[in-house]
Amino acid sequence: MEYTKFMSDRVKTMKGSAIREMFKRMADPEIISLAGGNPAAELFPGEELSKIAGKILMTSPTLALQYGTTDGYPAMRECAKKRAEKVNSVTDDDAILIMTGANQGIDLTAKAILNKGDKIVVESPSFIGSLNAFRTYEAQLVGVTVEDDGMSMEGLEEVLKNDSSIKIIYTIPTFQNPTGTTMSLTKRERMVELASKYDVLILEDNPYGDLRFSGEELPTLKSLDKEGRVIYAGSFSKILSPGMRLGYLVAPKALAEKIEVLKQVNDVHTPMLTQLMCVEFMKKYNIDDYIAKNCELYGRKCECMVESMKKYFPEGKVKWVVPEGGIFLWCECPTITDITPIVDRCLEKKVAIVPGSNFAVDMNAPSNMFRLNYSSATLEKIEEGVKRLGEVLSEML
Amino acid sequence: MEYTKFMSDRVKTMKGSAIREMFKRMADPEIISLAGGNPAAELFPGEELSKIAGKILMTSPTLALQYGTTDGYPAMRECAKKRAEKVNSVTDDDAILIMTGANQGIDLTAKAILNKGDKIVVESPSFIGSLNAFRTYEAQLVGVTVEDDGMSMEGLEEVLKNDSSIKIIYTIPTFQNPTGTTMSLTKRERMVELASKYDVLILEDNPYGDLRFSGEELPTLKSLDKEGRVIYAGSFSKILSPGMRLGYLVAPKALAEKIEVLKQVNDVHTPMLTQLMCVEFMKKYNIDDYIAKNCELYGRKCECMVESMKKYFPEGKVKWVVPEGGIFLWCECPTITDITPIVDRCLEKKVAIVPGSNFAVDMNAPSNMFRLNYSSATLEKIEEGVKRLGEVLSEML
C-alpha cells in the first residue's frame, strides 16, 4: 500500500535525527563515540535510586502506579521550583509544569505558539531535537549566527527589525548545543531588551546550565526578564538521569495553562515513579553535591579532549573554542567546505563525530564543522578517539 | 502582559478535559467519584514491582538511567509484540513503537496524518483525550453515532461516500469509552470493508480489550485487515499500571517511521526504568493471570453498579446497556435534554459523574447522558455513590 497520500505535510519530508540514526550503525563495540549527547554514566546514583524506587513501590504503590495529574506531582513541582529558584527563574506569575524530558516542554511550547508559516528565531547552529520539533509545526526557522559569546545581537536585531511577524526566539544561552559557547552578560541583557522592544517571547532552554567547570556563573535570561516574556525549560537529564525523562517548564500562567492542555492530550502526565524517585533523591541527598562531582569530571574530560586535540590535530587546520561547561565542543575546519568525507572516514577508523550540517537551519548546505562530546566516553577513550580523529584530519585536511 | 496574540490558533479556544478539571475540585475526601477512568488500585502489584525496580537499578543502573532509543527498549518492544500477537494484530509489514502511554500514540498518529482542516471520522461520543488531540491539529471531527453494538455502519458509509477527503477513522471498538459498548463482529468486518472501499485508514484504540468479564472475545479490526489499513494502539495502563505510562503502536512501517520521528522530537524516548520493569514483570509473572484477576473484580464491580442502579434509580427514567467488559457504563435520561443541573446537584450530594457533553464532537450541545466508572471505587462506595445519584435522579427527573 502507498501511505504517502495519508501523511500530513509536516512529516512528508521529515527525517529523523542523523545522530540517532548514527547510533544504530554504532553497534560495533570498537567504535569510540564522540557523537552522542549522553551524560557520564559512571556517576549515576544507581544504588541510591534502587533503594528509593524499591521503597516507594513498597510503601506507596497506589501513588506510584495510579494516574497522576497533568501538571506534575506536587512535590516534584516543588523540586523543579527549587532548581528554578536557584537561578532566580520563577516568579509569582509563573506556573511550573513537569515534562517527560525538557524536549517535551520545547515541543509543546512550540505547539502552543506556532501556526504554520510562523517564524521562530533560532541560533544557527542549534539543537536538532528542538529545530525538528519546530519544523513539525511547519514553522519557518530564522537562523542567527552564534558567535564565541553567543547569538549575534546585531543579527538578532536585524531580523526582528525587518519582520514584525516573529513571535519567539529560541535560545540555549549557556553551554550551547552544539557549539558549547555561552552567551555573555551584555548579550543576555541585550536579548531581553530586544525581546521587549520588538514584542516577542523567548524560549530559554537550559539543560546544561548546572554543568559549569570554569568561569563565572551568569544570570539566566528568565532572571533578567521583568515583563514575563521568557519561558524557561529546565531538565534533570544532565544532573540526575536522562533515561528517567524528567524536565520542566517555567512559564507565564496564561501560556502554561494552554501547554498543560497540550500535555494532557500528549502523554496525560509524566510517569509517577520517576517523579517520586526524583523527589526522594532530592530529599535524601544534596543534588548539588552530585552535580559538583559531575562538573569536576566533565572539567577533567574536557581538558583531556582539548589536550588531545592540541596533540593530535594537524596544527592550524582546526579552530575551536574551549567551553566553560556543558558537554560539547565545536570544531571548524576553515580550509574545507564539507566535513562529510571526514566524518565517513572517521567511521571507518572507528570514531564517531557529528557533522555540523545536522544542527543547521538549512540541513542541506555543506558544513565544515563538527561536534564532539566529552561527557560520555572515558578519559582513555577520549584520547584514543581524538587520536584517530586527528589521523583522519591530518590525512584529509 | 497579554499572551493571546502569541498563541497558536489551535490553543486559543482549547480547554482542558473537564473530567481532569473536576478531579481538582474533588479534593474533598467525602466525594465518591464515579467520574474518572482509573483502574482498580487494589490489585496493583506494588510488592512485585518494588523488587523488580530495586533489582534493575542495582544491577543495570546505566541501562535504566541512560538515554534509550526512540522506538523503545528492544525487549519491551517484544513484550508489546506478544500482547499484539495474542490478538493477531501484528504482521511482518508492521513496526512496533513503545509510547509513553497509548494516548501519545494517538496524538502522534494524528500528527503524522492530519493537516489543518483534514477530516477524521470519530465515534460520537468518544474519548475526550483523543478528540482533543485531533482538535490540536485543527482537524475536523466527523461524528458517527454509536449504537448498542458499536458505530453505525450506515452512518459511516454515508459519511465516507459523501466526502472523499476523509483520511482516517478513529474507533475504540471494544468496551468503548464512554459508552462501554462493543462493536459486533459483523460491524467490524464491515468497517474494514468500508475502509478498503473508500480508501481510508483506521486508528484502532484498544486500551480495554483485555478486560472482558462476560460474552465472547471478538477479533480486533487490525486482525481482520489484510491491506495494512489499521494502526493499532495498545496500552499497559489498564492491565498493569496507568502511572507507568506504557503503551504501544503497531503500525505499517512507512507510517511508523514518521511517527518515530515525531516521538523523537516529543519526548525522545519513553522512560527506561518503567519499560525495564514491564519486561521483568512479564518475564517473572504471567500477566494474563493478573489480568484475569482484574476482570473478575471488574465483573463484580459492574454487577454491583448495575444492581444498585436497578435498586436506586427512578424506574423507567434512565436507560443503559450493560457492558461485557471495560470500566465504563453509559446512561441516558430520555425525559430531559440537559444533564448539567443533575451533575451539579450530584456534586453537592458528594458523588461525581461525567456529563455526556464532554465526549461529544460538539461539546457545546446539551446532553442528557452521563458516564459512570465502576473500576475505581470499592463495592461499598459504588453502592453508596449510585444511591446518592439515584436520590438526585429521583428528585430531578
- Structure classification of chain A: alpha/beta
CATH superfamily of the largest domain in chain A: Type I PLP-dependent aspartate aminotransferase-like (Major domain)
Number of domains of chain A: 2
Q: What is the CA-CA span between the terminal residues of chain A?
A: 47 Å
At the first level of CATH, what is the class of the largest domain in chain A? Answer: Alpha Beta
Q: What is the overall silhouette of chain A?
A: globular
How many strands, what sense, and barrel or not for the largest sheet of chain A? Answer: 8 strands, mixed
Please give the share of residues in helix of chain A. 40-55%
Number of helical segments with 4 or more residues of chain A: 15
Please tell me the overall pLDDT of chain A: 96
Question: What CATH architecture of the largest domain in chain A would you give?
Answer: 3-Layer(aba) Sandwich
With strands numbered from the N-terminus, the spatial order across the biggest sheet of chain A is 2-9-8-7-6-3-4-5
